[in-house]
């Protein structure tokens, strides 16, 4: 057995056989799943001989669409893990009345910490980043984002952070400090293990990635819009993405500061947040929530954008109150920085301060209400088609209003004192984030899937998944409101109050529906891939789209637009279809310059993740090596000047003319046949 | 962008600009400005942390015990002067002076940067020897975090300067190299501004 003497600590630091997860059957099982999963994927890739393909076509790609898709894959894998963890917790609470249940307290605490950290940093953030990455450049008529290499580096930092979360399942124990990691509970005195270190570095990798993404997306929107695409012609999704990226630019640094200072406390013995030595743990709460509150709008705004596109598209109407939606979005973005103290109303500041922050919090309900009315009025007198994305939008509108109302309740400090630290809060934020973020992202995934892969997703399984997500959410989280009012504390591993039991059992049943929803998504994907020939939509416009991205083939070519479009109105593509110019022959083709693939991002992200792993386990050589390799990768890249490749005009012409010819041959499918095999991506017969 | 190109850049080659290159340069520099804004948030929060921990000395040394006006005045002078030499480097690039001139100014900036690092480094050593290490109290932790973050930024700037000097030598003043130099200049001047704040808040504020 390794000891703390000799060569072992020099090489492996504090990593020893004790780190293997044999302390509980569930932990062992989960760790084996991760290891088996990794081995199966590696084995499959080797057996199919796909490594080179994977490296060339995907991992080193700087194409914003592929990077977006890889982000969504990370998000989905992490979603699977976090949904399972959530279900385990609900199952535990459904049977833990007067009974220790199947999860020991320590393990339960790890579960709510990983569940929260994963859902926020490695499910929600990669999902929305992926969707923005994929759809936004297409919507503004651009060939790429402003900084493709930075984009790849952000992706790989996120992947590295997610990898660290997975490693924590196999080696050592994760933090028990919740997703917020409050010191002094997470400082070295109370929590000397590796758990908080895993949390610190996974979150830091994710927050650096998001800062870089924010910069990239903001600059892309400012500088890469096509001709005629003035700001007030941008689809609403672009506006919400812009506000989200501005929030990322300003809200992620507080998180980076908070985790960095906490790391200093733990590693070098400083006194920022400690109990002794003049430390001040309220500084952590302030820094963390200075990030944490804007974060919830980083999460929600892209979904608002998706819903705006989806509702307008499937109501076949122009978005009602476009300007008011933009103003509301900007108000929300600015106000999100003015309310963070509502996260610690009960921590001892004056009543007046609480009142100010309470009122500021309630005020955010106003612009959000404006949006709800705009969406309803967009549907009014429209011809609403109940496709899967539209179903999610409808469920969102109903459920989100409920969550908003409970938010107004919580914003009142007097009420907050009553339900503080109860599952009422858990109900509230799941009520905002499941309909508000998750439904939006799944709607976006369904809506833009054909643009990414060339075929639609199976409609029936999509509806099954939708039904399970909605039923599951209602059963699993609405009972937590009464439970919270009855005083059940959050993060409860075992309870002795018989009145709680019926509600926790219903919530447990809800968790089963959420698991079924996840399963249905997987089945939907498998079924759709098998039926891809019948679901193919090469015409490029399966939903009778209105914005630019629908005027190009499905899947989108690597250069996005053979000829850069010119925006003429808010719904440029719709206007072009109406005046018969949507598929008109192009005047001229030009050479297209695209970035060459680069391994810089892969090396940079994974080297920093390795460094983080080294820091967690005190393998100082690995930490130093990882940082040096990451810096080396950037330095080496700065000596490469030949970073672009050319796609000749003739090749662009060949592909584009072939597609235009195909478009003329394809039959048009009217909206009654939108979800049938007759839909091949031509909404109306193209004008001659 | 192949071989030596003579494209002109905004802020460097005033007067005649080549629209395409102009636009490309603008995008890159705009992105860097936004990065700097994000970086400034980081410093702002470290300042806020420092301000909130002014009194948290836990019975240990306070500003009057460890901070010295003379050494910090010297550091200020060195850093301000390095901004001047960086400005001269930008002018050398703008007026297409021989690359050697540009390199000379970059080397001068690098030397001043290294002097600053050395001065700052010896200040850290001295503070530690006087019992004011980062581990002593909340206040010393906040002080070291603020000064240390600035110091690390200057160190990164020095590495960047070395790379730039090399790249000017290897590639000559090509567009990508020039664009990088312009960003480096922005970065360097920003560090100067941050230092002015540190000098005012930490040193003048602490010793007044
Ligand atoms: Cu909040």
Description:
The complex is a heterodimer of chains A (688) and B (208). Chain A has helices at residues 8-12, 25-47, 51-59, 64-95, 105-139, 148-170, 195-223, 236-268, 281-314, 322-335, 351-363, 365-379, 388-411, 413-419, 423-453, 459-477, 480-485, 501-530, 532-535, 572-578, 600-616, 620-638, 649-665, and strands at residues 592-595, 644-647. Chain A is mainly alpha-helical and 688 residues long. The longest helix of chain A has 35 residues, at 105-139. Chain A starts with 7 loop residues before the first helix and ends in a 23-residue tail after the last helix. Chain B is 78% helix and 0% strand. Chain B contains 6 helices and no strands. Chain B starts with 18 loop residues before the first helix and ends with a helix. In chain B, 37% of the residues are buried. The model of chain B is unreliable at 1-12 (pLDDT under 50). The chains are: A mainly alpha (688), B mainly alpha (208). The A-B interface holds A 146-147, 211, 214-216, 218-219, 222-224, 249-250, 252-254, 256-257, 261, 264-265, 268-272, 276-280, 283, 287, 290, 631, 635, 638-639, 641-642 and B 1-2, 23, 26-27, 30-31, 34-35, 37-39, 41-42, 45-46, 49, 52-53, 56-58, 134-142, 144-145, 159, 163, 167, 170-171, 174, 176, 180. Bound molecules: copper (II) ion. Residues 293, 296, 339, 342-343 of chain A line the site of copper (II) ion.
Question: How would you briefly describe this protein structure?
Answer:
Helix content of chain A is 65%, strand content 1%. Chain A is an all-alpha fold and 688 residues long.
List keywords for this structure.
heterodimer, A: 688 residues, mainly alpha, two-stranded antiparallel sheet, 23 helices, 2 strands, 65% helix, 1% strand, B: 208 residues, 6 helices, 0% strand, disordered N terminus, binds copper (II) ion
């Amino acid at each position: 057995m390794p000891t703390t003497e000799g060569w072992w600590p020099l090489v492996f630091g504090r990593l020893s056989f004790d780190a293997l997860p044999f302390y509980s059957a569930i932990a062992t099982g989960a760790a084996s799943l991760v290891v088996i999963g990794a081995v199966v994927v590696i084995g499959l890739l080797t057996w199919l001989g796909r490594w080179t393909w994977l490296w060339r076509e995907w991992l080193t790609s700087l194409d914003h669409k592929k990077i977006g898709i890889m982000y969504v894959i990370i998000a989905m894998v992490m979603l699977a893990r976090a949904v399972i963890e959530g279900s385990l917790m609900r199952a535990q609470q459904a049977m833990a009345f007067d009974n220790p249940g199947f999860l020991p307290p320590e393990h339960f605490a790890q579960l709510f910490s990983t569940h929260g950290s994963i859902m926020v940093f490695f499910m929600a953030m990669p999902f929305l980043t992926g969707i923005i990455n994929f759809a936004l450049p297409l919507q503004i008529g651009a060939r790429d984002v402003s900084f493709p290499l930075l984009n790849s580096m952000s992706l790989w930092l996120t992947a590295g952070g997610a990898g660290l979360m997975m490693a924590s399942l196999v080696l050592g124990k994760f933090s028990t400090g919740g997703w917020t990691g409050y010191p002094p509970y997470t400082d070295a005195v109370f929590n000397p293990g590796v758990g908080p270190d895993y949390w610190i570095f996974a979150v830091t990798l994710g927050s650096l990635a998001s800062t870089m993404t924010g910069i990239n997306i903001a600059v892309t929107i400012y500088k890469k819009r096509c001709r005629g695409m003035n700001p007030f012609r941008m689809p609403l999704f672009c506006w919400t993405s812009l506000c989200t990226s501005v929030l990322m630019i300003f809200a992620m640094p507080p998180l980076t500061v908070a985790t960095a200072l906490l790391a200093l406390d733990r590693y070098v013995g400083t006194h920022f947040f400690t109990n002794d030595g003049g430390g001040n743990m309220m500084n952590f709460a302030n820094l963390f929530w200075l990030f944490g509150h804007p974060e919830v709008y980083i999460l929600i705004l892209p979904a608002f954008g998706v819903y705006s596109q989806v509702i307008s598209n499937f109501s076949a109407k122009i978005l009602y109150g476009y300007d008011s939606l933009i103003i509301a979005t900007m108000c929300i973005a600015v106000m999100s920085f003015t309310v963070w103290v509502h996260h610690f109303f009960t921590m001892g500041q004056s009543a007046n301060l609480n009142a100010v922050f309470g009122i500021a919090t309630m005020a955010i309900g106003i612009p959000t209400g404006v949006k709800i009315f705009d969406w309803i009025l967009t549907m009014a007198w429209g011809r609403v088609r109940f496709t899967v994305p539209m179903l999610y939008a409808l469920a969102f509108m109903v459920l989100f209003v409920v969550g908003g109302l409970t938010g107004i309740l919580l914003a009142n400090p007097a009420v907050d004192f009553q339900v503080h630290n109860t599952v009422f809060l858990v109900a509230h934020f799941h009520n905002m984030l499941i309909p508000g973020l998750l439904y939006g992202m799944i709607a976006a995934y369904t809506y833009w899937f054909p643009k990414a892969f060339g075929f639609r997703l199976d409609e029936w399984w999509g509806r099954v998944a939708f039904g399970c997500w909605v039923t599951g959410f209602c059963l699993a989280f609405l009972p937590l409101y009464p439970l919270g009012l009855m005083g059940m504390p959050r993060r409860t591993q075992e309870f002795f109050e018989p009145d709680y039991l019926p509600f926790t059992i219903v919530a447990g049943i809800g968790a089963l529906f959420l698991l079924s929803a996840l399963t249905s998504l997987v089945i939907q994907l498998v079924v759709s891939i098998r039926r891809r020939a019948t679901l193919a939509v090469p015409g490029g416009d399966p939903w009778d789209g209105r914005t630019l991205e629908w005027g190009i083939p499905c899947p989108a070519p690597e250069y996005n637009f053979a000829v850069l479009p010119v925006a003429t109105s808010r719904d440029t593509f719709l206007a072009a279809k109406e005046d018969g110019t949507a598929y008109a022959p192009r005047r001229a083709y030009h050479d297209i310059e695209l970035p060459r693939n680069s391994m810089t991002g892969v090396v940079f992200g994974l080297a920093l993740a390795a460094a983080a792993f080294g820091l967690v386990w005190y393998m100082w050589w690995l930490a130093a090596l990882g940082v040096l390799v990451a810096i080396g990768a950037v330095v080496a890249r700065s000596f490469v000047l030949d970073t672009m490749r050319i796609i000749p005009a003739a090749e662009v012409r060949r592909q584009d003319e072939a597609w235009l010819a195909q478009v003329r041959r394809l039959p048009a499918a009217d909206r009654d046949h939108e979800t049938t095999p007759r839909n091949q991506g031509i909404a109306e017969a193209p004008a001659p | 962008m192949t071989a030596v190109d003579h494209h002109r850049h905004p802020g460097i080659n005033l007067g005649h600009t080549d629209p395409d290159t102009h636009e490309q340069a603008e995008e890159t520099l705009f992105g860097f400005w936004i990065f700097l804004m994000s970086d400034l948030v980081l410093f702002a929060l470290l300042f806020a942390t420092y301000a909130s921990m002014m009194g948290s000395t836990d019975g240990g040394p306070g500003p009057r015990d460890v901070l010295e006006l003379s050494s910090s005045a010297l550091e200020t002078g060195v850093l301000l002067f390095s901004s001047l030499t960086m400005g001269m480097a930008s002018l050398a690039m703008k007026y297409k002076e021989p690359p050697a001139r540009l390199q000379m100014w970059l080397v001068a900036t690098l030397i001043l940067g290294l002097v600053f690092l050395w001065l700052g480094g010896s200040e850290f050593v001295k503070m530690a020897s006087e019992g004011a290490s980062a581990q002593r109290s909340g206040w010393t932790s906040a002080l070291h975090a603020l000064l240390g973050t600035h110091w690390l930024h200057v160190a990164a700037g020095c590495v960047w300067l070395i790379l730039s000097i090399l790249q000017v030598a290897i590639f000559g003043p090509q567009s990508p190299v020039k664009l990088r130099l312009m960003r480096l200049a922005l970065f360097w001047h920003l560090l100067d501004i941050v230092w002015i704040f540190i000098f005012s808040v930490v040193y003048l504020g602490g010793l007044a």
